[in-house]
Amino acid sequence: MRWTRMNAGAATMVFLVAFASPLALGACDDEPEAPVEAPLEAPEAPPLTATLRTFSLDRSSSAVDFLMEAPLENIHGVVPHSMEGELFVDLADLSRSRGLIKIDIDPLELFQRKRESEDEELGEEVKSDTQNEHARTWFQISEDAPAEIREANRYAQFAVTRISDASAMNVLEMEGDERTVTLTAHGDFHLHGHTAQKSAELELTFAFEGDEVRSMRVRTVSPITVSLAEHEIRPRSAFGTLAQATLSTLGEKIAEAAPITFEVTANAGDPCEDIPAMDVAASAEAQAACGLGVDDEAGEGGLPPTDG
Questions:
Q1: Which of 37, 71, 129, 256 is the most exposed place for a label (fewest CB within 10 A)?
Q2: 91-100, pLDDT tens digit by residue?
Q3: Sequence-ordered strand ranges (E) for the chain
Q4: Rounded distance, CA 27 to CA 19, Å?
Q5: pTM above 0.85, yes or no
């Protein structure tokens, strides 16, 4: 939205005309001089009220969680203080909102609950250093992976390209210091060199001071299901080497998908005029590394001749 100011030169010209006119008339005859009017002043510009705002994710406020439930083992993953990125939110029309969310999986920690058979109760949740080392190898962010591969695989990314099913479209028409809206965000989810279409049911709680928005709390209403196979996250014994076991053979211990939930606060920034393109940063090297160690003749379901 553009706001119009009276040009300072125009105001000056009005003043000169108003001041000079009675002098010119007085020079022609002896009529009394007309009173000089005060010069016109340029009006103050109205306050900037652009409805499109930038929100920056506060990494320290974020929490990412998932629980993978298999018959003999539950794996609980936490990724604290890991989210960053920007959301571009139109407060008057949430359907125009877009954003790019990044999750740093380097701080990922796994905890497990195990049992020998389905007839038993699951044991106490504990952290296994070995399991955490295996997870880093599966994601190809372990120390034996090349630095550029580790860096490319370090982030999961969600580029929000479309909004639907908002419970309210115009936050500015709502009242109160806290204004809550639910909606569905659609876009590209990128992990481990592969991108898939995902949708996320979200709850947004806007914090206002008077008419000014200060922050926005974002949390998942229901989990976002991420398939391990879809992103080629497989059992690996080392970088570039698949393990003898596969996701299928480990099915009793490891679920094939991770239902992810998250919560984060995003701080309101300056108004903006345009929304930049929302594109995930893909790495061809990381995608190629996903296929290292695969037995081409055996195909996807085959077991490579490696130790696991």
A1: 129
A2: 999 999 999 9
A3: 52-57, 63-69, 73-80, 83-90, 98-104, 109-114, 126-127, 155-164, 178-191, 194-209, 212-220, 224-227, 236-238, 241-242, 257-271
A4: 14
A5: no
